[in-house]
Amino acid sequence: MAEALARAKESQTARPTYRVDRSFEWNYANGPDFAGPWPDVPDTPLKMFLGLPVRSRFGVPASILLNSRWIETYARLGFDLLTYKTVRGAARLCQPPPNWLFLDPRSVAAHLADPEAAVALAAEMPAHPHTATAGGSFGIPSVAPETWQPDIVAARRALGAGQVLIVSVVGTARPGLSDEAFVEDFASLAASAAANGADAVEADLSCPNVARREGEVYLDVPLSARIARAVKSAVGDRPVLLKIGDIADRAVLGEFLEQVAGAADAVVMINAPSRRIVNASGAPAFGAGRERAGVTGGAVKTIALRAVGDAASHVARRRLPLKIVGVGGIASAADAREFLDAGAYAVQSATAANWNPRLAAELKAAAPDI
Questions:
Q1: How far is CA 233 from the centre of its chain?
Q2: What are the tens digits of pLDDT across the range 269-312?
Q3: Is residue 43 left, alpha or beta, with left meaning phi > 0 and alpha meaning psi from -120 to 50?
Q4: pTM across the whole model
Q5: Three-state DSSP class for 139?
Q6: Catalytic residue list contains 94
Q7: CATH 1.10.10.10 is the classification of domain 2-366
Q8: DSSP 16
Q9: Sign (positive or negative) of CA dihedral 89, 90, 93, 95
């Protein structure tokens, strides 16, 4: 018991691996900020993840794993589904700092459920950041292909047995770009990711703080289905995942699942809900032109769990060849179990995994079957 309490206390006071007081570029070049002590990762039975043997169906979504050095660190920490941060066909700078700010719990409780309401910043650092709620404004940055392509090779080489490298890709929208060219961008990136060692490829169809064309692709069901088919054709027998946000209209969610089943193997949900984030004076917390940002962490769990349950129920009822990967507010083995009980096939964590890098080891000790 004393040892368990010590581990719990340590996890709550752990330094984040992604330095929220630094820029994305600093974290890419210098991170992760983790020097141990390394946890003892329990040896768990092998399971299958989309046809691939894994030590757990738990990992990190497209978020903090910025390059092969990050992948290697989190693999050694015991995370088994490792998603390489979303890449593009050309370099794209991150939005300037700040990029990650904590939100006031009272404001979150009062306003998060309303997509048009403003959520306020926290006045101080939360006592338990790994379960707190935050706002993130990054904009899907990417290094150039000549940098990420060989780095994916290095990332795959860094994995151990029972670990899977998922590479997330996104087509880049620009004025005048046809749907055909947009779809082809996704397919070309997917093919490159696969050729350089990705075990699975994720098409990122959702971002809460970029251009509408990129950030809300998942709300265009026919376009999403075309992207899914093109990516599947490009990667052959490798699994294809689609990252989406919450689809409030459950009829549209059902249509989405129907249309992508058979091309995509899994849907990763949900990406951070987009909300207006304000400071104490009511001004945009991330600066002018960045009024909306993605909400991550603890309070997102309620939204994500409901969305995952609804999607999994539709998949089961219609017997669709599709799996649901749950993301949003997962900070413990108990949280993960709730998502699995709701029908999720696998689960991933970003905010909690950043503030508690020992999370995978703790989950494996508590729930070796996950």
A1: 24
A2: 999 999 999 999 999 999 999 999 999 999 999 999 999 999 99
A3: beta
A4: 0.94
A5: coil
A6: no
A7: no
A8: P
A9: negative
